[in-house]
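Example for tutorial group B:
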């Protein structure tokens, strides 16, 4: 990270920490979760930085950004706007993965004046109905071998009771990790991850609210956006990705055969190609 410029942005409750690298059209990355640490998206930064000026930041709830709330979708949208404004970028192309893809589509509906375009990578959930959330959770756990499922349920109960240790949280992530991929025999190592449980629970409780207004805003076609989905992802792309695209006359869907939820691992270059397509059309 020695070639990256560090920045901080003052926001409600403290500040957000971020990094900028590369040169070219301006792209900002939104990590998933919610409440997850940003670093798992480093391969996406590496894929884009040779063609674009790429900014990424840790969303609130984990250091080095503020750990203070409010943990609401409205605040998350304001935080993204604050980062773009602080970077002095008149407009940016926003790329979000999973929860970050959901947030990116919300941002497109709320703040179109700050955007060149939006790319949602295997958004979870989508912005129509429940966005496929229930189907995703069922499919994810169904992909785990039985002994892993049994252990995960024990860990999940400990988490709900507030008794889980950090080591048990990591164990739960490790149990689920392979289920996100198309080929369970060829899964990359689990990257270092942290999760702020309060952030996750607070924001996931809101994801189904206000979606009719989001759909209405996107249906105008004011913001060009694309969705890249892994055909073998546990996220049901028909309910999440395709449904999110069909609401707008100015959107596209690219379903990648042989890719799971983290499409950049199993289809290198796919994210860069989708961003280039959006830049060309914008």
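The residue assignment follows.
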């Amino acid at each position: 990270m020695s070639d990256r410029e560090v920045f901080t942005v003052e926001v409600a409750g403290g500040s957000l920490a971020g990094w900028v690298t590369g040169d070219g059209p301006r792209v900002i990355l939104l990590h998933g979760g919610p409440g997850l640490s940003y670093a798992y998206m480093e391969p996406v930064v590496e894929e884009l930085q040779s063609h674009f000026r790429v900014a990424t930041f840790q969303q609130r709830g984990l250091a080095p950004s503020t750990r203070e709330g409010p943990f609401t979708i409205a605040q998350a949208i304001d935080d993204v706007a604050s980062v773009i404004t602080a970077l002095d970028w008149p407009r940016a192309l926003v790329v979000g993965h999973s929860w970050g893809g959901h947030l990116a589509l919300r941002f497109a509906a709320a703040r179109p004046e700050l955007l060149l375009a939006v790319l949602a990578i295997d958004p979870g959930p989508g912005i129509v109905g429940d966005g496929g959330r229930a189907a995703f959770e069922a499919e994810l756990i169904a992909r785990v071998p039985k002994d892993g499922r049994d252990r995960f349920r024990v860990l999940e109960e400990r988490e709900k009771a507030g008794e889980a240790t950090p080591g048990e949280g990591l164990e739960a992530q490790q149990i689920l990790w392979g289920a996100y991929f198309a080929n369970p025999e060829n899964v990359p190592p689990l990257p270092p991850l942290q999760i702020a449980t309060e952030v996750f629970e607070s924001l996931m409780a809101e994801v189904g609210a206000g979606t009719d207004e989001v759909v209405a805003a996107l249906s105008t076609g004011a913001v060009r956006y694309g969705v890249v989905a892994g055909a073998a992802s546990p996220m049901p792309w028909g309910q999440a990705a395709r449904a999110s695209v069909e609401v707008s006359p100015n959107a596209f869907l690219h379903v990648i055969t042989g890719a799971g939820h983290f499409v950049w691992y199993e289809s290198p270059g796919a994210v860069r190609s989708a961003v280039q397509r959006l830049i060309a059309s914008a």
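The longest strand covers residues 14-21. Compare this with the pattern of hydrophobic and polar residues in the output above.
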